[in-house]
Design brief:
21% helix, 8-stranded antiparallel β-sheet, 3-stranded antiparallel β-sheet, single chain, 19% strand, 5 helices, globular, alpha+beta, 261 residues
């Protein structure tokens, strides 16, 4: 049976101060290799799994043979992804970060680095914490994470900020491209940016309001196997998310839909 893993006081302090912390060696390298093998077998057709033929489990866009883009919400059709998302070793640390029991709601599997522009996960998943699990060593060669420590304590960019409401009132970022707005918010914060590297089996816990991006990839064809899972507080109601499916999963095995109002 997998033992419960407690978050250390220093890690908790770093998470509160900087908006992230690293759980070193949370997963065994052999476990990581088995998951990578599973994903490579799925991609190359040696293993069949209904749902994997779609690049996105929500949009049903077909995946091409040379498509190494990330999968989305793979836990909805893949028992292995579900098992990793609800691994008991994550539970206590997430409970500490969320100050509540965690509910899992989304997964993304990255074959390669994304070089995604700056963003806050809470823009899409308000109230969340993400667990970014490195299944292999991650550094500047294959694409580390670049973060702005402390930005989780600053302003948050909300979707409504980019829009005009029902009364015609424009949000403070109305007319901005979302990614450009995050770059501008990054500059306004005035905090330095750092690169976060992870060893195989490490898990990076990221506050939903932390501004971060995918760093440059020095070897563009290199693999960077990573599983990113998002969690919200059990008590968070009603459902706030426009895109994510309303199914949420608890570590005790329960699952439920959340009302939208």
């Amino acid at each position: 049976m997998v033992e419960r893993v407690e978050i250390a006081s220093a890690q908790k302090a770093q998470y509160e101060q900087d908006g992230y912390t690293i759980l070193k060696g949370l997963f065994d390298p052999d476990e990581c290799d088995r998951f990578i093998d599973h994903m490579m077998d799925l991609h190359d057709g040696r293993e069949k799994l209904d749902g994997f033929q779609f690049a996105d489990a929500m949009s049903f866009a077909l995946r091409n043979a040379d498509d190494w883009s990330r999968t989305r919400n793979q836990h909805l059709f893949d028992p292995m992804a579900m098992a990793w998302m609800l691994d008991p070793r994550l539970r206590q640390s997430l409970r500490t970060c969320l100050d509540d029991e965690p509910d899992a709601m989304s997964t993304m599997y990255f074959y390669k680095g994304s070089e995604q522009r700056r963003h806050q996960d809470a823009f899409h998943v308000p109230g969340c914490v993400s667990a970014w699990i490195a299944l292999q060593n991650v550094d500047e060669r294959n694409g580390s994470i670049h973060i702005q420590p402390g930005s989780h304590r600053g302003p948050i960019l909300d979707k409504e900020d980019l829009r005009e409401d029902a009364d015609g009132v424009r949000g403070p970022w109305y007319g901005w491209d979302g990614e450009d707005a995050f770059d501008a918010l990054f500059e306004r914060n005035g905090f330095p940016e750092i690169a976060v590297e992870a060893a195989k089996g490490d898990t990076v816990l990221i506050h939903g309001r932390l501004i971060h991006r995918g760093g440059p990839i020095l070897e563009p064809d290199s693999f960077r196997h990573v599983l990113a899972c998002h969690y919200i507080p059990y008590s968070l109601n009603p459902w706030l998310y426009e895109v994510a499916p309303r199914m949420r999963f608890s570590f005790d095995g329960a699952s439920r839909f959340t009302p939208t109002h």
